[in-house]
Amino acid sequence: MTVISLMDRRLIGDVRMRVARPDNDTWNLHINNIRSKDTGYYQCSINTDPVQTKRIYLDVKSAATEIKKIQPMNDTTIHHVTETEGGNAILPCSFKSSATGYVQVVWMSSDMTLISIEDLRISDDERVSVRSPHKNVWNLHINNVRPKDTGYYRCSLINDPVKTEMVYLHVKDCSFANDDEHMSHFLMNTKMTVKSNPRL
């Protein structure tokens, strides 16, 4: 058994955890950015005579597991985004949700790796962020894109009913992009001369 806190002082090294005391008789354990491994029993004990103990079971549902159950419908919206290597890509996602209260939106990559929940980045890739400039909009930003970022990305609204949008990101290799630019420049600055054939 691991001791998490003593009074309102955190003893464990996990900085996601803290104890909040809204009043003198309450000691609430707060866990930020919860993960599947946090699932289990937690025990709160008060050193009285006799000792008072309360056990709480925390069940963390994996958003990735829920998403894997979803099969894309034929009418799923697919957006196409093209960006040159080294640029910043914005992958759009917007829903008109009829749900009231809490709305959960997740971004996942083509291999079903969880990227974000709401505007909280789950991925270790610091180039990635989610921004919500307006209500019901959750755009995925990828800075300094690379060719390996090319592929499908899935944005899903985990409410009832579930809604999903797909975005295909194509990252152009900068070497090919430069070749195209040089060719365009060459054609624009090349003077073409056409000679007529007197025999015709």
From TrEMBL:
PROSITE patterns: IG_LIKE. InterPro entries: Ig-like_dom, Ig-like_dom_sf, Ig-like_fold, Ig_sub, Ig_V-set, Zig-8. Residues 72-167 form the Ig-like domain. GO terms for biological process: synapse organization. One of its GO terms (cellular component) is neuron projection membrane. This is Ig-like domain-containing protein. It comes from Biomphalaria glabrata. The lineage of its organism: Eukaryota, Metazoa, Spiralia, Lophotrochozoa, Mollusca. The gene is 106058091.
